[in-house]
Amino acid sequence: IDSYNKKLHNIVFNIPFVKKISLIDFKIPNNSQINIDHTFCRSKMFHIIKKSQKLYIGHKYFPHKYEEVKNNKKHKIKNIILINFGSVNKKKYIKESLIFLKRVNLNKQFKIIIINKYLKKKDLKIYKNLVHNKIIYFKYTNDLHKFYERTYFTIGGCGISLYERSFFHIPSIAKSVAINQRYNFKNFLVKKCILDYRQYIYGPNIK
Fold first, then answer.
1. Distances (CA, A) of 25 to 62, 108, 170, 183, 186
2. CA atoms within 13 A on the CB side of 62
3. Which DSSP symbol is given to 205?
4. Tens of pLDDT along the chain (207 residues)?
5. Three-state secondary structure along 33-79?
6. What's the rounded Cα separation, in Å, for the pair 195 and 188?
7. Could you tell me where the beta strands, DSSP code E, fall in the chain?
8. In the beta sheet, which residues pair with residue 138?
9. N or C: which end of the chain has fewer CB within 10 A?
10. What is the C-alpha radius of gyration for the chain, rounded to an integer number of angstroms?
11. Distance separating the N- and C-terminal Cα atoms of the chain
C-alpha cells in the first residue's frame, strides 16, 4: 500500500498466507506485516512498530530500475538540461531556472526539457525568449528514464524524482516544494548530494 490515506494502511485482509506491505515516509501506526520507508538517512527510531512487524528503512529499499541502467553499456550523449517541477503550480520556479541558465551562458548544444502540468502556450513563448537553447515541453511523462540517460544536469524538487536522478548520477539543483520533501532536502544537502536552489538560483550573478 502506497498512500497518504491512513485508513488504507490499517485495512484488514482476511486472505491466508498473504502479507500486507506499507510504503511509508511518515509516522503512522498500522497493522501491516511489513513497513518500508525508503527515505534517505532516515533513523530507525523514527517509526514505532510492533514486535510482530518488520521495518526496512533507507534509500536502498527505493523501488527503481537502476539495475537496467547498470546493465546498459551503450554510451549516450548527455545533452539535456532537465527542469522538472511536474505537479508544482509555481511557474516562477521555471522562469527563475531559465534565467539562471542564461546567466551561466549555457552552451547551445544543450536542449532544455521542461516538465510541468500547469504551463500554457503563452508561458512557453516568453520562456523561449529567455534562452538561446531549444526548449521542449511536456505536461507529464511516465518514462523519465529515457530522459535521465541523456541528462547532464537537473533543476527540480526533492520528491521521488530526486532519488531517481541520484541513481542515474545526475547532478541537481534542488528545492523543497512540499512539506514531505523537507527531510529529503535537508539530508541530501547535508551529505552534499545536491546544490541548494536558493543559493544558486537566487545567488549572485555568475560571470
1. 11, 40, 23, 10, 15
2. 22
3. P
4. 998 899 999 999 888 878 899 999 888 899 999 999 989 998 888 998 999 999 999 988 887 765 555 556 567 899 999 999 999 999 999 999 999 999 999 999 999 999 999 999 899 999 999 999 999 999 999 888 889 999 999 999 999 899 999 989 999 999 999 988 999 999 999 999 999 999 999 876 544
5. CEEEECCCCCCHHHCCCCCCCEEEECHHHCCCCHHHHHHCCCCCCCC
6. 9
7. 21-23, 34-37, 54-57, 80-84, 111-115, 135-138, 151-156, 172-174, 195-196
8. 115
9. C
10. 20
11. 49
The rounded distance, in Å, linking the Cα atoms of 28 and 47 is 8
141: its cell numbers: 511523462
Cβ of 185: how many Cβ atoms within 10 Å?
21
Which residue reads 498466507 in cell numbers? 17
**158 vs 25: CA distance, rounded Å:** 13
